[in-house]
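pasting for the record
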Amino acid sequence: MATVNMDRLLHACVTQGASDIHLVTGRPPILRVDGRLRSLETKVLEPDDTMALMKSITPDRNQQEIQEEGGTDFGFAYADKGRFRVSIFRQRGDISLVLRLIPSKIMTFEEIGLPKICSALCRRPRGLFLVTGPTGCGKTTTLATMVNYINENFDRHIITIEEPIEYYHSHKKSIVNQRAVGTDVPSFGEALRRVLRMDPDVILVGELRDLETIESAVRAAETGHLVFSTVHTTSAAGTITRLIDVFPVDQQEQIRIQLSSNLIAVLSQVLCPLAAGRGRIAAYEFMVVTPAISNLIRENKTYRIDSSIQTGKKLGMQLLDEHLWRLYDTGMVALEEMIDKSRQPGALQDKAMEKMSAMKGRAKAKRKEKAKEMEDIGPILRA
């Protein structure tokens, strides 16, 4: 029997505002709070502890998968406080667990700081909308916000295909069917092969991870559906290049044409700890596919997309480094955080140094002005 109680760990995660729980042999339980790892003041976990903790939450089917495959993923609800996405794996013969907290409350566009044009894009009848970024940057939360917006405002049939299901959506104005890969359907490929027979309006695919899934998602967008998905890339232009590079050389021109016609937007995001203390804020790169950008994709000139984003500010477009600079300039994130998350750290560092130099110059000028003022009134005071 485990001496560390799983229910207490879940409670601590929720009450301390953590995003993840790490349970590994040789360390006490660890929470990730605002992106940083913090050990709990409890016993160091032994192999029997992690095994017992695993068994306390893992369904029999998933325990069997650990035995056969060395790992498993699933989700479960923790009372009404939220859901956890669980990854269990073997390492050096012992069991390790990572539990990601999926909050029960779905945030609004305003709360997560999404560009206003996102709501207009969610009304589109067809197209491919990609949310990209590194692991743990909030892609799932952003997608859940978009799906919830459609669910609350339009009569649509929404189908989500995820591994595992993270945010649960109840039926509102729309009908929402959520399929878990591994439980409801054996694979993403199989789910996407069948989804077009289910009369969907909106399809959410958890991740575009291979050629078959990308091909199916693009085809679904092409045939009159609004498709949302994620990719592990860090820029809009890089996302397009990544999708095209998955295909064999003789198919790349065809996928470029398909993407130029069906891609409607790419939102790349990172999460930054707030300089003032607790909490994190998202920084975004946002690209809406205009006719000019569509031509660049078709002509294989993705290296020019950044320039088009810079000139598309009236549509809400922005580069990641532009948003990071605004967050730093207004004091919301620290200099080191801006540099760490930026695409061109050298350029931003130079810009920050120029700002500091200018501030020092202004402060020096102000001091000189004050000294001169004192010199001028000195004789008057002595008189």
